[in-house]
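ingest -> validate -> predict -> emit
validate: passed (alphabet ok, no gaps, 382 aa)
predict: started
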Amino acid sequence: MQAVRYLMLAIFLTCLAGCGSGSGSNQQTPAPVDPVPTPPPTTPTTPDKQTQLQDILNNAITGSNTPGLVMAINDGTTSFILASGTKDAQAQTDITTEDSLRIASMTKLLVATVVVKLAEEGKLSLDGLMTDYLDAQSINAIANYDQITIRQLLNMSSGIVDYTAVDAFNDAVDDNPTQVWQQQEVLSYIHNLDADFAPGANWNYSNSNYVLLDLIVGAVGHSSLAEEMRRIIFTPLAMESSYLEFRENSAADGSQLSVSGFEGSEEVTNINDGIGFGDGGVVSTAADLSDFIDALFDQKTLLSQTSLDDMLTEVMSQEYGLGAEIRTTTDGTAWGHNGSSSGFAGDMLYFSDKGITFVLLSNQADSMILEQVMTQSLAVME
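emit:
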């Protein structure tokens, strides 16, 4: 009987062990393993704005006829000053953001600012005649000299012939390319020539207008254009690298023009075609000019709003006001001035719709890449 009990116990234990190792409902399921995450697709990193702008300058210079470029661009929050290329094609010396270049006819906007400021100060009237401020005997060989107003000189509606378009003047430059000219000497080439039209009757871009304004500023200020420009613009804005060439021997910091200018492949730095006057005599840096444009059109610290409105009133649908170009561009309305002369070319503009100040200087009078650089740079700043 006891043997039977042992046998039944053994059978019971065997069954119990088998049930514990079977596939019944008490079997534990292994914990699931998380799948390895798939990495997101790689997105190319967009270069920062400074890198993009530098690439624009570098790419524009490559294969072009322009040795060097200096650019300043400011959207009111961020500003960049960049340079690319060389300042001397022979020595291959890199151009820098500190270099001062001739700004050619961009000078006219600075001269206009000085003249309009003198009007604000009560020292002249924009609707006064030239003869109110200059000795008639010094200008009486200029057609309609006694009928032309300061305003007509500023907005190019005087009808006075452009001395730089007179063959005799250009022949004189060819004969003596390093001559240092005086205002009355260049104006002598338009003496006794017929006017292009009666004062105020039409519009024609004439550098002679701004040589005459140069003389008028000196007369009413009892000084010179160089001194008045320094008093009204350069000193208040700390434009320490800007000066009127040949009228001030050097910049305020003692530096001299160190960048060579070209027309095509020819270096023309030392050819004097009337350098140093109110029509195109300023030497400056991109940074200084950016400060000027910003102060004039954005901060409005140089002139009153009334004067600015007057300056930016277009005359005869010519996109020109009082020494200011008023351009309609694909990037909106832009105010400023361009210039090209004596081996250099450039542009300075304030895009009023975008609040962007743009300055571009080159040491190539025939540069073909300025507009391309401007358009691409503005796209980066948006």
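The chain has one domain: 52-381.
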